[in-house]
């Protein structure tokens, strides 16, 4: 699964790797490149939160992106690994001031 281009962070590109096990748990690995720091958005935010939409149309906060940039690269990267018992249908990333929010704010990337 891949994230679509965004007008909020147009350079960002990302993908999602999903695997299911025999107990119907879903392993989610998200990788984003060229993601501007949330503090550089207008207005500025503190973090990016990953959301999952389930097959029952429920929206779940599955965690904050871990962001980094390497010394030799200017490509800002974000990643998240999670496991869910809910079957995911789509994902999106929002800019937030706190990571434990219950409802998404500014949506910056989406798979649909």
Figure out the total of helices.
0
Number of strands: 8
Major sheet details: 4 strands, antiparallel
Order of helices and strands: EEEEEEEE
Q: Please tell me how large the radius of gyration is.
A: 14 Å
Helices and strands, with pairings:
Layout: E1 13-20, E2 26-33, E3 47-54, E4 59-64, E5 66-69, E6 76-84, E7 88-96, E8 106-110
Antiparallel strand pairs: 1-2, 2-6, 3-4, 3-7, 5-6, 7-8
Structure in words:
The relative contact order is 0.29. The chain is 0% helix and 51% strand. It has strands at 13-20, 26-33, 47-54, 59-64, 66-69, 76-84, 88-96, 106-110. By secondary structure, it is mainly β. The strands form two sheets. A four-stranded antiparallel β-sheet has the order 1-2-6-5, with no helix packed on it. The protein has a four-stranded antiparallel β-sheet with strand order 4-3-7-8, with no helix packed on it. It is built from no helices and eight strands. Strand 3 (47-54) and strand 4 form a beta hairpin.
Defining key terms:
112 residues, mainly beta, four-stranded antiparallel β-sheet, 8 strands, 0% helix, 51% strand, globular
């Amino acid at each position: 699964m891949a994230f679509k281009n965004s007008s909020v962070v147009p350079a960002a590109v990302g993908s999602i790797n999903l695997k299911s096990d025999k107990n119907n748990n879903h392993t989610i690995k998200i990788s984003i490149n060229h993601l501007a720091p949330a503090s550089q958005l207008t207005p500025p935010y503190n973090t990016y939160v990953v959301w999952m939409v389930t097959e029952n149309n429920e929206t779940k906060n599955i965690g904050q992106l871990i962001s980094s940039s390497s010394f030799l690269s200017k490509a800002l990267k974000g990643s998240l690994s999670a496991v869910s018992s809910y079957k995911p249908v789509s994902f999106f990333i929002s800019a937030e001031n706190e990571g434990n929010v219950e409802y998404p704010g500014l949506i910056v990337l989406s798979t649909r």
